[in-house]
Amino acid sequence: MIDRQTGTELAGVRSSAGVLRRLASLVSAALGVATLGAAFLLATLTPTGAGVRLPAVLLLVTGLAALAIVLSRIRRKARAELSLDALTAEAEKATGLRDGELRAAFELGPVKPGESEELVMVHRRLVSLEVAGRSPSDLFPGTNTRWRRGVVIGTLAASAAIGLVVLSALVRPVPTAHAARLWAAPWRALASVPVSELRVLAPASVPRGEAAALSISAQGRSRVMLFEQAAGEPPRSRELEVDPISGVADVRSEPIRARTRLWAEDLAGRASEVIEISPMDPLLLRDLVLELGYPAYLHRPSERLERPFSTLAIPEGTTVHVRGAANGPLSAVTLTPLVDRPGDSAVSLTVDGESFAGGFRPWMSGEWRWGIISADRTTGLVLPPPLEIRVLRDSLPDVRILHPEGDRALGSTLRLPLLVDVRDDIGVSEVELVSWKV
Question: How far is residue 185's CA from residue 179's CA, in Å, rounded to a whole number?
Answer without folding.
Answer: 10
